Amino acid sequence: CAAHRVTVLPGDGIGPEITAVALSVLEAAGQAEGETFTFTEALIGGAAYDATGDPYPDATYRACADSDAVLLAAIGGYKWDSLPSASKPETGLLRLRSSLNAFANLRPAKVIPDLADASSLKREVLEGVDLLIVRELVGGIYFGQPRGFGERDGEKVGFSTDIYSESEVERIAHVAFKAARTRSRRLTSVDKANVLEVSQLWREVVTRVGAEYPDVELSHMYVDNAAMQLIRNPRSFDTLVTSNLFGDILSDEAAMLTGSLGMLPSASISNDGPGVFEPVHGSAPDIAGQDKANPLAMVLSAALMCRHGLGIPAVAGRLEAAVAAVLASGVRTGDIAQPGKQTIGCKAMGRALLEA
Amino acid sequence: CAAHRVTVLPGDGIGPEITAVALSVLEAAGQAEGETFTFTEALIGGAAYDATGDPYPDATYRACADSDAVLLAAIGGYKWDSLPSASKPETGLLRLRSSLNAFANLRPAKVIPDLADASSLKREVLEGVDLLIVRELVGGIYFGQPRGFGERDGEKVGFSTDIYSESEVERIAHVAFKAARTRSRRLTSVDKANVLEVSQLWREVVTRVGAEYPDVELSHMYVDNAAMQLIRNPRSFDTLVTSNLFGDILSDEAAMLTGSLGMLPSASISNDGPGVFEPVHGSAPDIAGQDKANPLAMVLSAALMCRHGLGIPAVAGRLEAAVAAVLASGVRTGDIAQPGKQTIGCKAMGRALLEA
Ligand SMILES: CC(C)[C@H](C(=O)O)[C@@H](O)C(=O)O
Ligand SMILES: CC(C)[C@H](C(=O)O)[C@@H](O)C(=O)O
């Protein structure tokens, strides 16, 4: 069978280290299942800006568009923080998402019992937490027009527009209802409809789409309440669907609850092109190049890519099994270090994964 | 000396019950210090809508504007959830804030050691948590224009504008820096400047105002990261300042962390008129009228009003001491019930406070 064409974007900070591990493990798992990959590396973020002056060069766009899936590590770092907005690594990431129309960001937050002690939350609150946040990723206030700076009553103003159309809400709602069907059939739509018109449209459309999924129990919650309930009783949630901005905030909150940010993968899916698969964590510039990074979220992102982007679930299964096996064997990277367990570096974790 | 003129807004749900307790305790504490009050009751929220068709009748505005301070309990309930936006209780609250120009919302989130076990967070994470969120309350996406519904490419859109002017950011920044000075002189400004122009202006102005407060250590944090750090290490924060929307989300998150939402007061201050003092918790329609509500946040809101709105700190001290004494005596309302402590109702809590 033909090789799966993967565009690989190592990006900044710890990105290259965790990418190296993920690709070697992915290749080994593929081999075991008779699947091959061609990896095309391309630049994004600060690395791309340094090399080309553009955080998302056209060559990178073309490589991504012309592949079966995109595997991204992480972008950003202090070094580029004071660049003008258009040159910032983050802008490269936003353009990547938008150019591939990767509108559905799936962020699972599942507690790994072995690692639950690293969470700030009490063990009994965390038990059984397994939720999925479906975040709209290419609309809302991240991209809405008009935006910029202007003058009002003789002084400067800054403004951004939060806007959604019916079809933008419809397509993300369908993804969320379908995802809820593969889980426990409960969907919570999060908005701020008591204040924002854009949320009122959101709620109206999600409710309407819900009529097509009578087997899924839909409820609505205000974002401030959701931020509270995630802490009070995270187990009460199954699938959540929300806008770009609220999803940014709530998915990070949910990730932190689990206590193992370094373990969480995400998928950003389009309806008609390659998806982008990436860890939830950032580029951690403070530990970059020190062989301290945790590559497991990146490996699990590769697993998500195999399952949802490339249609090779057997390879995904092997990757996930390898991660479970190394955790069970008692080795940990620094971020998930535990008393009585051996702390190892990024490369050693890679070797442990290959053995498993 | 003349009586302090307080406009009292019991509102909806448990509002009237907790108001009755707060007023009786306030009156007793005032008497002990030789201070008297005139209470003018007025309608707001669902109660106002039911009586007049308007969730913030003009008579209420006039009573508030013509008083030294406003004491508000809570608004809202399922009953009014399907009304058109303009009639909703929440709209009444937003109009109250805006009409009084109560632009600075101060929301302390302090862990009460006796009650820390009610939190989802581990005791060691919570220890010593004492933070203050300064939320801009009359600008941003809550009030920005243009907003509403429209058409784009032949389909319906909903939109809201997040906008701040320099002077709006300046005045809230000054409040925050001054508040930080009375605390441990560390201020974290929270924004999403890597994506939003409105946040870029926010960051620029806060930084500029910061130059006038060289003794306060200013840092900036993205809102998604703040949502994480509040869980990972809430103790690392002292004073936070942020926009209306981010403040809504983060202050509720921070309140829930403490484990005692029913204990948290807030103040909304203007530069040139009466402030609004209210509990952080909502109207809890599910337990309304059952004598189960916790009146302590309302009593502590009355204390904040005495200290910051009326300039009678001695009365505030008496109210706070009474709350501390009843907690120490071991009585609890249902929301903060603890094994080995006596659970009592709202009225009984009022009697206990009066005795204390
Ligand atoms: C880096 C930033 C632009 C990005 C976002 O806000 O979407 C990040 O926080 C994320 O959630 O992937
Ligand atoms: C009721 C609602 C409009 C209000 C807000 O969003 O400001 C509430 O959540 C609050 O924080 O006081």
Automatic annotation (TrEMBL), chains A, B:
Pathway assignment: Amino-acid biosynthesis; L-leucine biosynthesis; L-leucine from 3-methyl-2-oxobutanoate: step 3/4
Gene Ontology MF, one: NAD binding
UniProt remark on cofactor binding: Binds 1 Mg(2+) or Mn(2+) ion per subunit.
Ligase among keywords: no
Needed co-factor(s): Mg(2+); Mn(2+)
Annotated GO CC locations: cytosol
Source taxon at top rank: Eukaryota
Localization, UniProt: Cytoplasm
Principal subcellular localisation of the protein: cytoplasm
E.C. code: 1.1.1.85
Protein function: Catalyzes the oxidation of 3-carboxy-2-hydroxy-4-methylpentanoate (3-isopropylmalate) to 3-carboxy-4-methyl-2-oxopentanoate. The product decarboxylates to 4-methyl-2 oxopentanoate.
NCBIfam families linked: leuB
Protein's UniProt name: 3-isopropylmalate dehydrogenase
Organism: Auxenochlorella protothecoides
